[in-house]
Amino acid sequence: IRDYDLFICTGGAAEFRIGGDVYRLATGGALLVPPETVFSARLIGPANFDAVAQHFTIEILGGTDLFSLINYEPLVRFDEEWEHVSHYTDEYLRLTETPDRPFACEANFLLMLGAFLRLAWRSGKPSPGGDDTFVVEIARLLDARYADDSVLGVAATLSPYSWDYTTRLFKEHAGVTPKQYLIRRRMAVARERLQHGAPVKDAAEAAGFRDELYFSRLFRRRHGVPPSRYRFGV
Hints:
Layout: E1 4-11, E2 13-18, E3 21-26, E4 29-33, E5 39-43, E6 50-56, H1 66-69, E7 75-77, H2 82-96, H3 102-123, H4 134-144, H5 151-156, H6 163-174, H7 178-195, H8 200-207, H9 212-223, H10 227-231
Antiparallel strand pairs: 1-4, 1-6, 2-3, 2-5, 4-7
């Protein structure tokens, strides 16, 4: 596999062998298989093994591989988040059968990936090296507190450098400035809300946009359609 592969188990259990490591993936869990990795899996128990599996690239921070900058656990259990994640998997599977709504399908996968990242990051130890690891901390903060008007100010406190220099370093890794990264995150949230039927005003506010007209202009410039049309899949 040349890309990352995320497995989310929705039924049964299986044993995965990745290199010299063995992982037991059961209902309510997720496993990330890295690129260029040979792996095998075998069924455990009498029940069928059901899972959502998706290849993806991980150039979330521009050309930088996020997983190369952090320590993470490849296997997680969603536990209290499983009710939400299972909803995302159901929607994802349903939407794969409706190719006319690719945006909605992608949005649900990103929600699943985000849920995995939150748990995988918590399970790992702090990344040991690199003067620029604060870039990941800033990106993580922006992902989590996207609707907070003060989030960029808080992000500035995570860097040992001036904000101008921090912005330059962040762009080297992410390909965009922190402000542009934040707008991307807010747009992703707004798209997800629209795809689930939220009114334009509610989607804008949930994503952190206080001005509905500005949001609508920005949305149309980025996606080629106004949010009202995107909401109904037109």
